[in-house]
Design brief:
Length: 479
């Protein structure tokens, strides 16, 4: 176990990094983007590995040979990446040189980030050590299903039996349970260390991705501030320790919009980042049912924004590239939903007349709207509401949104907005007690969107390095 546990995590992450190294466009220096590649690889590697593990389990009924297949795949990726590295080494060395000077703003941002990171890490480890099996949903949904996959042998499909009750939500996608079961296959036992490490990886990968992406697209100080803000959000750390699938879903939503932002920084390599966006959106759908809603909203948003700015022909071409990345994972989700999983309990309980009655009941809209307003006002868990604190930050530093970032901001904002609107109407038509449903789940749904909203915000905001060197009242950039 001493060696197999780190291998279980390093193998997919390194495989993801190698795949991204191969996919990365020549217009961007791989050497300069190494931390961004690593952040994306953390989720990409585990997500693809979970999908491959489940497919192997379905086809062969045992995970015994899967480890060997994964090692072979890693070796093949290594060979291909070495070939790419030989061709692009000169380009990377030439374009990867960066200034070693560190501004005062970056030093302050780094100090604040390190303090928040240490506090967050301490909190995560303390709670995970105290409650290694975590909360109710982790025990009865995610980890229980992982144990069926790991221990069930040829009876693993009993994990989706209706005899277990609707409260086990057997129709939920399997990225998290399959990731955990795969880790246990490497270790040889269902130790609690594996789900804790999976939860920790996704929790801190969100901050890592914000830091790396904004450092690349805006500035190092901007990335450090954004990462400190998301780690300072109590809800993220707590839900991370709860071992729920909402944190991985938040990561893949963020990774999808980051990939769209990266597509705007290149010309010849644009399609590669669009393929990556499709993969990440597909992994969101493989994580939770809510990921399917985001997937639809994401594609609609990107098509609409691209058609408005570049014409519908270009938009169709971009959508085709995204579908290329999405197709294999979407096929897996459809196969799982129609061939293995039972029907969704929420959808199965709906009928047309009752649903129309709820849609025309204005009191339900008021209840849901009040829940959204209360949750929004409490975002952050700080002395001051996070939206208020960020508004004050924006007033202090100003706004500077370049022409290059505008399509990505529009796409991300529209996708997240459509997703939240979808959540709103799901509450309106829910067959469950409305007050209970809003109170017990809305905080998790806001988690899905919050890292991406922070990404949008810090693309808008002027970077702290400029704000400190030019203290005059900032004006909006004209592109």
């Amino acid at each position: 176990m001493i060696l197999s546990l780190p291998v279980a995590f390093l193998l997919p992450i390194l495989s993801g990094a190698l795949a991204l190294w191969i996919l990365w466009p020549e217009e961007r220096s791989r050497r300069a983007d190494i931390w961004l590649i690593g952040a994306l690889a953390a989720g990409l590697g585990l997500g693809i590995a979970s999908a491959a593990y489940f497919v192997w389990l379905v086809l062969f009924g045992s995970s015994r040979m899967f480890i060997a297949i994964e090692v072979i795949g890693f070796a093949m990726l290594t060979g291909a990446a070495l070939q790419v590295a030989r061709r692009s080494l000169a380009t990377d060395l030439a374009s990867g040189r960066q200034s070693t000077q560190t501004s005062l703003a970056s030093r302050f941002s780094l100090a604040g980030f390190v303090l928040v990171l240490l506090a967050t890490l301490t909190s995560f480890l303390a709670v995970s050590a105290t409650y290694p099996h975590s909360r109710w949903d982790a025990i009865t949904i995610w980890n229980m299903r992982a144990r069926f996959l790991f221990r069930g042998a040829d009876q693993w499909s009993d994990a989706f039996s209706g005899l277990l009750g609707s409260w086990t939500h057997a129709d939920y996608p399997l990225l998290l349970p399959a990731s955990i079961a795969r880790g246990w296959s490497f270790v040889g036992s269902d130790t609690t260390a594996v789900p804790v490490l999976v939860a920790g990886l996704f929790t801190f990968a969100i901050a890592w991705l914000l830091l790396a992406s904004l450092s690349s697209l805006r500035s190092r100080g901007q990335g450090l501030v954004a990462a400190a803000v998301v780690l300072g959000w109590h809800e993220l750390v707590m839900q991370g320790t709860w071992q729920y699938a909402d944190v991985p879903l938040a990561f893949f939503i963020l990774a999808s919009v980051v990939a769209i932002a990266l597509a705007g920084t290149v010309t010849d390599g644009r399609d590669r980042f669009l393929v990556l966006a499709g993969i990440m959106a597909g992994l969101a759908a493989w994580t939770k049912n809510e990921g399917l809603l985001f997937l639809l909203a994401f594609f609609v948003a990107h098509f609409a924004v691209t058609a408005h700015r570049r014409g519908w022909r270009k938009s169709l071409g971009d959508t085709g590239s995204m579908l290329l990345g999405l197709a294999p994972i979407l096929a897996l989700v459809v196969w799982f939903k129609w061939g293995i999983a039972p029907s969704n309990d929420l959808i199965a309980s709906l009928d047309l007349s009752t649903t129309l009655g709820r849609l025309t009941d204005m009191s339900r809209y008021g209840t849901v709207l009040a829940g959204f307003a209360i949750r929004l006002s409490r975002l952050g868990g700080w002395l001051v509401s996070a939206p208020v604190a960020l508004a004050l930050y924006m007033l202090a530093v100003g706004v500077k949104l370049g022409e290059r970032e505008r399509p990505a901001v529009a796409t991300a904002a529209l996708a997240v907005g459509l997703t939240l609107a979808g959540y709103f109407f799901v509450f309106v038509i829910t067959p469950h007690d409305l007050g209970w449903h809003v109170a017990t789940s809305l905080h998790r749904l806001f988690l899905h969107a919050w890292p991406s909203l922070l990404f949008i915000f810090f693309l808008f905001a002027r970077v702290p390095e400029e704000a400190l060197t030019s203290p005059s009242v900032p004006q909006r950039a004209r592109g």
